[in-house]
Amino acid sequence: MTQPDLQALWLQALEHFEREEWAASEALCIQLIQHAPHKPLAYAQMARICHALGLTRKATWNAFQASQRAANATPRDLLPVAGILIELGENQLAKALLGLIDPKTISAPLLLDLGRNYSVLEDQPRALECIDAARAAGLDGAFIAHMQGIVLSFTGPLDRAVAACEEAVAKAPGYGHAHWSCAQFGRKEGAPERVARMRAALQMEGIDNDDATFLHYGIFKELDTLGDTAGAWDALMAGAAARRSVTHHDIAQEDASYDALIAATTQAWMDARGDVPTDATPIFVVGMPRTGTTLLERILGNHPQIKTCGELNDFRQQMQWVNNHRLTLAL
């Protein structure tokens, strides 16, 4: 039997995926797995397809299969496997795979990708090491400057974070997310000028919905800092409208997800899990974003008899797993 051109099959699978032709992309991935079952990327791509379709369990299974074949993979192949694991919330396994990559042996673009993944996993010091190394190796542009600014906003020093975000705006005046990051530092000095700068950016040709959303949100933040509540509210509503215009919400699928969850948690299921440890009492802080849940967790955490766990995604992950439906939160 003649061996097919696996690279050509792989590129075709990616093209079909980008066009949301899921079945065609899946068929090509199955061929790749049949001819190279020890390679991780086809499994990772299968996970991406299942994740796009909202099939949580199949996506997780395929991502796990990819991870089991990644030990001897190149950094270029390890990174997308870690990426889909992060998307699925399998952060511990993703971080273990990233640990197989020696930053000293990879190119500047891969260093940036590695740093971005570490940042998502909230390992900001390691993310900064990778991003700084990528910049030292000559990688330049608005995106890496912005990434550096984001990470520095966690690690400090703050003046470097501000400078990096401002550099990103200077390199790409229509880069909405960079403008938004500049607004997050709460600086009254120069705020009117930054508002005018963002309003001018909104008038630029080629501004996409994502840029427009972040520009409106940035204007909201700056005006709120200046005490212009009415203007801030108008900007916030404009940003929310821009985001909502491209957010697809399938009401029937959402209802089916919760119906499946209810069906899975019968009284017998609840009774079987009634025997829980009594030496410690769990406290669950839940709520919508930006409603003070983080603040409440930190206040409670200051009590000597309370140990906090940080912001966990366990409830959402378990809901998705039990009903095998992806829950999309686009805010």
Description:
The protein is mainly alpha-helical and 331 residues long. The chain has four domains: 101 residues, Serine Threonine Protein Phosphatase 5, Tetratricopeptide repeat, CATH 1.25.40.10; 71 residues, Serine Threonine Protein Phosphatase 5, Tetratricopeptide repeat (Alpha Horseshoe), CATH 1.25.40; 60 residues, no CATH class; 62 residues, no CATH class. The chain is built from 18 helices and no strands. The radius of gyration is 23 Å and the shape is globular. The model has no long low-confidence stretch (mean pLDDT 92).
Describe what is shown at a glance.
This protein is mainly α and 331 residues long.
Chart the SSEs and their pairings.
Blueprint: H1 6-18, H2 22-35, H3 41-52, H4 56-68, H5 75-87, H6 91-98, H7 108-120, H8 124-136, H9 142-155, H10 158-171, H11 176-183, H12 191-202, H13 209-226, H14 229-244, H15 251-264, H16 267-272, H17 293-301, H18 314-323
Helix pairs in contact: 1-2, 2-3, 3-4, 3-5, 4-5, 5-6, 5-7, 7-8, 8-9, 9-10, 10-11, 11-12, 11-13, 12-13, 13-14, 15-18
Overall tally of domains: 4
Structural class: mainly alpha
Helix content: 55-70%
For the record, the CATH class of the largest domain is Mainly Alpha
Mean pLDDT: 92
How many runs of DSSP E, i.e. beta strands?
A: 0
Number of helices: 18
Strand content: under 5%
Characterize the overall form.
globular
The ordered H/E elements are HHHHHHHHHHHHHHHHHH
The gyration radius over C-alpha positions equals 23 Å
Uncertain parts: none
- CATH third-tier fold name of the largest domain: Serine Threonine Protein Phosphatase 5, Tetratricopeptide repeat
CATH architecture of the largest domain: Alpha Horseshoe
> What's the CATH superfamily of the largest domain, by name?
Tetratricopeptide repeat domain
Largest sheet composition:
none
Tell me the distance between the termini. 51 Å
